[in-house]
Amino acid sequence: MSSARESRYRVLLVDLDGTVVDYARTENGALRETHRRFFRTGLRAFLRDFHAANEPLWADYRERRIGLAELRLERWARMGAGPRVATAFEEALGRNVVLFPEAREALRRLSRRSRLALVTDGIARVQRAKLRRTRIERFFEHVVIAPEVGLRKPDGALLHHTLSLLEAKPDDALMVGDSPAGDGGCAQEAGVRFCWVNRTGAVPVPGIPVHRTVGNLTNLTNLTAL
Ligand SMILES: [Mg+2]
């Protein structure tokens, strides 16, 4: 390891959900709110059924089998609910957003020595609501929300687009994210190194190169001469 090598990462491309936003807590708060308002079934069964409906749809989305417009309705259709519930849940996600405890201070420190861009996928107005509420947009030179530019993770083009906004090259950048399939996949396709934020001690995904692994964003600030 040499500091000369590490100092090439002038640009950090940072994912939002599961990396900066504690998505499990955010989603859980929104689900509880949605359950209280619209469902009479038990909470435990409701949560189980939602995850069973939602997670395969996100895999279908990454693999281009469905779009976001379909996903947002279909996950509730599988729960026997309509568009009104879909919209209420999305609004609740914005209201319930929670950052990981170290995220704000880590972004502040990282933004003093690197150029940061946020690269997120998901429903654009939900992502915008999270940014407004948490006021973290100030740490990023650019915010790229994949569907707003007609792309999705793991498209390498999403990172090329972001790098072009920054006038930077793949070699200058490190993609920081919690998802090997989404973030690691687009980093691999774009020729950008991938820093895996592995908060849960998950096992690596075969075929996705990982340049660095950190347990949280404070660990990232401690990497040599980032
Ligand atoms: Mg993520």
Automatic annotation (TrEMBL):
InterPro entries: HAD-like_sf, HAD-SF_hydro_IA, HAD_sf, PGP-like_dom2, Pyrimidine_5'-ntase_YjjG
Record-linked SUPFAM superfamilies: HAD-like (SSF56784)
Highest taxon of the lineage: Bacteria
A Pfam cross-reference name: Hydrolase
Entries under PANTHER family matching the protein: PTHR47478, PYRIMIDINE 5'-NUCLEOTIDASE YJJG
Protein known as: Noncanonical pyrimidine nucleotidase, YjjG family protein
UniProt source species: Planobispora takensis
